[in-house]
Prior knowledge:
Pfam families: LRR_1, LRR_8. It is a single chain. β1 and β2 (about 85-90) form a beta hairpin. The protein is α/β, with parallel strands linked by helices. It has six helices and 24 strands. Helices cover about 15% and strands about 25% of the residues. The chain has helices at about 5-30, 30-35, 40-55, 60, 385-390, 425-435; strands spanning about 75-80, 85-90, 120-125, 135, 150-160, 175-185, 200, 205-210, 225, 230-235, 245-250, 255-260, 270-275, 280, 295, 320, 330, 345, 350-355, 370, 375-380, 395, 400-405, 420. The protein has a domain at about 35-125. The strands form three sheets. The chain has a 16-stranded mixed β-sheet that branches. The chain has a five-stranded parallel β-sheet with strand order 17-19-21-23-24, with no helix packed on it. It has a three-stranded parallel β-sheet with strand order 10-12-14, with no helix packed on it. The structure holds 2-acetamido-2-deoxy-beta-D-glucopyranose (NAG) (5 copies). One 2-acetamido-2-deoxy-beta-D-glucopyranose (NAG) binds near residues 353, 375, 377 and 439.
Amino acid sequence: MLISGNHFVLAVCILCLVVWCCGQADNTEESAATAPMEKAEQAALYSAIQGFVGDWWNGSDLYPDPCGWTPIQGVSCDINGGLWYITTLSIGPVHDNSLVCATNVEFRPQLFQLKHLKSLSLFSCFISPTRHPITIPGDDWEKLAGNLVSLEFRSNPGLVGQIPPAFGYLKRLQSLVLLENGLTGEIPASIGNLTNLNRLVLAGNRFTGEIPDSFGMLNELLILDLSRNSLYGHLPLALGGLTSLLKLDLSNNRLKGRLFAHIAGLKNLTLLDFRHNKFSGGLSHHVLDMVSLEELMLSCNPLGGAIMSLDWQKMQNLVVLDLTNTGLIGEIPESLSGLKRLRYLGLGNNNLTGNLPPKLASLPDLNALYLNGNNLTGVLQFSHVFYGKMGKRFGAWNNPNLCYPVESMTTTTTNGPYGVKPCQKGHFDRAKFHGQVGG
Ligand SMILES: *[C@@H]1O[C@H](CO)[C@@H](O)[C@H](O)[C@H]1NC(C)=O
Ligand SMILES: *[C@@H]1O[C@H](CO)[C@@H](O)[C@H](O)[C@H]1NC(C)=O
Ligand SMILES: *[C@@H]1O[C@H](CO)[C@@H](O)[C@H](O)[C@H]1NC(C)=O
Ligand SMILES: *[C@@H]1O[C@H](CO)[C@@H](O)[C@H](O)[C@H]1NC(C)=O
Ligand SMILES: *[C@@H]1O[C@H](CO)[C@@H](O)[C@H](O)[C@H]1NC(C)=O
């Protein structure tokens, strides 16, 4: 930019005037330039943050007006009765300029003076379970009960100990997410008092004990995720009353008992993930009542029983059906080929026998089919187009009495399905002759 001499002098004068004015305002009338905010609220904010990010952080120096012209990343405010109050506090490396926790972190009592807080989130904040383990303070949560709707502690391996029963006071809470921390002990029954919860995620900790019966009071729940803990025992009967549930993930625990009879009423459920537990008692017909299910995942449970006995046609929304390693016996029912939205069908490592229904290949969206590790017999009747489309996502190995007809391969470069042997000439002729083959 080109500035003539005169203009330059003028510009310098204006600059001086601006600096002088601002300086005046700053010195004489500090509160006029800042938003109205109770000094106590402001001091509590600074101290609470300092507890997380370290003593070097001087809030009053760096952010003299946290709800006005010096906003803090992760902090937001609302006006109530003409005064600013803190409503959101999020600490953790989300944005470039986020507040990030120090190694010597602490919950300061001042945190609980922020009574207008609606949302508190601590992400990747308590890092070291060995050098600096931190427990959740036990007592003061009642002070936040009036406004807190969302509480989230995520990816904090150094956050250890139990969930304080006083969380039960946070009656307004709609979302409680304690994901991937180092928390232990039993889940307090008082969590069942949080009847406004839509989302309850306690996954990826080391919780033990049983799922509290009081969870049956959480009538507004849409998402319940208790996966990746060490919970044991039976499912509370009352869980079947949570009819608003959309997603139920209890995978990777040590839960046991019969399934379905009492949870069949979860008619809006779209995801049911019970993988890696000890559920038993077979696949009852009640599973078919959960007509909204899109993902039904039960792999690695000693369920047992037959898969044939169910009329899968009813489950028209199923996209993922994972019954891998569930001790299933019997033949694969042709009704599975009526599930037109199916993309993933896992039936591997069971005790399935008999022939495969060739119609399975006609499922329009199927892109993974695992049948390995069974005792299926006869000739695979799928086309080379099907094998080409599926590639490695067709698994039929470890079925010693299964073979594929070499004649169905049009070119010599097309390989047969992995781990399945070509049929002996006589075997195949017999297959064609009988329409199907027994062994
Ligand atoms: C923060 O800075 C202000 C002035 O900039 C100073 O008066 C105050 O003592 C400092 N506070 C801390 C805790 O260091
Ligand atoms: C939870 O509710 C029960 C009654 O259902 C009550 O006895 C208990 O004090 C409540 N706990 C909390 C922490 O609110
Ligand atoms: C199930 O979903 C339907 C449609 O979204 C909704 O109208 C109904 O209220 C839901 N049922 C429950 C118990 O939430
Ligand atoms: C399959 O059945 C055989 C004999 O009934 C049994 O020994 C074996 O453990 C079963 N395998 C599985 C994976 O259930
Ligand atoms: C597989 O099935 C055949 C009969 O179809 C039976 O003879 C054989 O014992 C079975 N193998 C296993 C491991 O169960």
